[in-house]
Amino acid sequence: MSASTLWKDLLHRYPPMTIEFFINSTIQLVCFWLVSAIYIFLPYFTPAFSARHKLQKQEKQPTAAEIWECFLVVFRNQVLSSSAQLGMILLDAKPPPHRFDVILPGPAEIARGAILCVFLREIIFYYVHRLLHQPFLYPTVHKPHHRFTAPVALAAQYATVTEHILANILPLALPPQILKCHAITSWVFLAFSLLETTTVHSGYDFFSGSARMHDLHHEKFVVCFGTVGLMDWLHKTGGKSVEDRRLQAKIQ
Ligand SMILES: [Zn+2]
Ligand SMILES: [Zn+2]
Predict the structure, then answer these.
(1) 119-138 residue pLDDT tens
(2) Beta carbons within 8 Å of 160's beta carbon, 6+ residues apart
(3) How far apart are alpha carbons 147 and 26 in whole angstroms?
(4) What spacing in Å lies between the alpha carbon of 107 and ligand 2's midpoint?
(5) Segment 101-110, tens digit of pLDDT
(6) Cα(145) to centroid of ligand 2, in Å?
(7) How many domains are there within the chain?
(8) Residue 132 and residue 128: Cα distance in Å, rounded?
(9) CA of 144 to the centre of ligand 1 (A)
(10) Residue 155 Cα to ligand 2 middle (Å)
(11) Please, which of 142, 153, 214, 243 could form a disulfide with 36 given CB 3.0 to 4.6 Å?
(12) Which structural domain, as residue segments, surrounds residue 143?
């Protein structure tokens, strides 16, 4: 059965919101939970390899009890967001958040849409994240996420409910809706974003050290608020820019 026939068959059998719920849940399960589990169990199965690739020292890593507590908070957040989505299905909420056109998008359309979504996510997440660091919000809303100064993959969604909605759900949900992407493009973007967020919180130097920036944010708090570095470059809040400014201040 071709992808196009399979898609038509799915659309014929189920309402878009139901398809959306099941595919979103599968992506969360594979790209967030399974990948987080692999990163978290790495030190137990391959301690020497894991220690060689960790960005921060062993003594700063969270204990098994802290990781368990992290799991419970993340699980609660996922249950809440899945329940909200299920509620929308039961209430027969319309319209579906993305285009469910019968004709599937081609690779070029998917790639273009996903790249634009990453760009929009960078802008939304950066400003939401800067807002969460303001004194009137930080202690009650964002401080718990900073509990792990040496983060692990699961800590990506270790957040208060308010932060989970503002910083974890909105920057992923809004871009495909604003750009009116096909549902397939939105799932590619979601899968990429979850793989990226687990990797940048993993504390490992894999994928050319892509975790370094966000790891530095967890360690120093006042640098690297974005996801891909673009907005940090624009606002001079990247790790290097802040370091340069401090050096400059010392010299003067
Ligand atoms: Zn922060
Ligand atoms: Zn984080």
Answers:
(1) 999 999 999 999 999 999 99
(2) 140, 141, 142, 144, 145
(3) 28
(4) 31
(5) 999 999 999 9
(6) 6
(7) 1
(8) 6
(9) 10
(10) 7
(11) 153
(12) 3-100+107-251
